[in-house]
Amino acid sequence: HEADAYRTDLMTITRFVLNEQSKYPESRGDFTILLSNIVLGCKFVCSAVNKAGLAKLIGLAGETNIQGEEQKKLDVLSNDVFVKALVSSGRTSVLVSEEDEEATFVESSKRGKYCVVFDPLDGSSNIDCGVSIGTIFGIYTMTHNDDPTTEDVLKPGNEMVAAGYCMYGSSCMLVLSTGTGVNGFTLDPSLGEFILTHPDIKIPKKGNIYSVNEGNAQNWDGPTTKYVEKCKFPKDGSPAKSLRYVGSMVADVHRTLLYGGIFLYPADKKSPNGKLRVLYEVFPMSFLMEQAGGQAFTGKKRALDLVPEKIHERSPIFLGSYDDVEEIKALYAAEG
Ligand code: AHG
Ligand code: MN
Ligand code: MN
Ligand code: MN
């Protein structure tokens, strides 16, 4: 009765991570507790997003964040839920959120060994029109027992121990890596559980989709301009690539991960460091891409080797299928 077995053998995200962690004899379940609180936040945001219009949760909150963006009600609500869930987990020491100017340092009685950097609501400009949005997070571990400082999160992405995102779209999907591959879990609202639906995700080695905001084309540098030109007017007789751009990084990256292709948010004359934030957008998505067999490049170096100096620092990013990113790297190398 294969069908019956499937119905009763539920591989929830908690069970999956417990299996993973059981490979480390010294693990005491701290990561599992941390993850269950991130999952709680995602379930809350999923529910709030699904009834946003009804619950009058669309529109502006009347505040502006450090990014100079007008905060949406859902930006502020999601941020509050994640900060409270992470602090109360007793497993974190430092939190960095897109929506908070300063890092949050957890008071000593509630401190734990993890530092979480996160974008509570990614793609805010798409909230009011019902287009997919998401949450992005990255996890570092504390390396000392003294009082935490910003130094504990100003680390290269190659020191992250886990990263993931949750996409609030036609279904609610959580994609996670703890450093041994990428797995996708879909929320079953009738159970309130994320169930493993996409085991061991690998990105196709090459894709035929490019994803960029062409509205910035007049400000792009040479290599980016050449690459996009090549996507649209291939010289070697290969078919032109399709353009797909949602404007929510989570949605554009999720499609790239599953279908292959390349996502780029390049530098431009107006923003020499591009738009996307290193700690809670570039690093987690780069971590996932590499774990799925893809690549992530800044135009100068491997994205995960960046060492951020400020918690809201930005970087250009080119990520996706291995071969597609190789082409971009060659163009930047040629420019020298
Ligand atoms: P956020 O809503 O968290 O501020 O992030 C928005 C980001 C990212 O989701 C997306 O890839 C990018 O902004 C889109 O920027 P443009 O509208 O400039 O293309
Ligand atoms: Mn924002
Ligand atoms: Mn974002
Ligand atoms: Mn955001």
TrEMBL record:
GO cellular component term, pick one: cytoplasm
Enzyme class: hydrolase
Cofactor: Mg(2+)
EC numbers on record: 3.1.3.11
UniProt-listed GO biological process terms: fructose 1,6-bisphosphate metabolic process; photosynthesis; sucrose metabolic process
CDD domains linked to this entry: FBPase (cd00354)
Entry keywords, A to Z: Carbohydrate metabolism, Cytoplasm, Hydrolase, Magnesium, Metal-binding
Residue intervals of the Fructose-1-6-bisphosphatase class I N-terminal domain: 11-199
UniProt GO molecular function: fructose 1,6-bisphosphate 1-phosphatase activity; metal ion binding
Domain Fructose-1-6-bisphosphatase class 1 C-terminal: residue ranges: 203-332
Substrates-to-products reaction catalysed: beta-D-fructose 1,6-bisphosphate + H2O = beta-D-fructose 6-phosphate + phosphate
InterPro entries assigned to the protein according to its UniProt record, in alphabetical order: FBPase_C_dom, FBPase_class-1, FBPase_N, FBPtase, Fructose_bisphosphatase_AS
A family per Pfam: FBPase
Subcellular location: Cytoplasm
UniProt family annotation: Belongs to the FBPase class 1 family.
Name this polypeptide is given: Fructose-1,6-bisphosphatase, cytosolic
Species of provenance: Eruca vesicaria subsp. sativa (Garden rocket)
Record lineage: Eukaryota, Viridiplantae, Streptophyta, Embryophyta, Tracheophyta
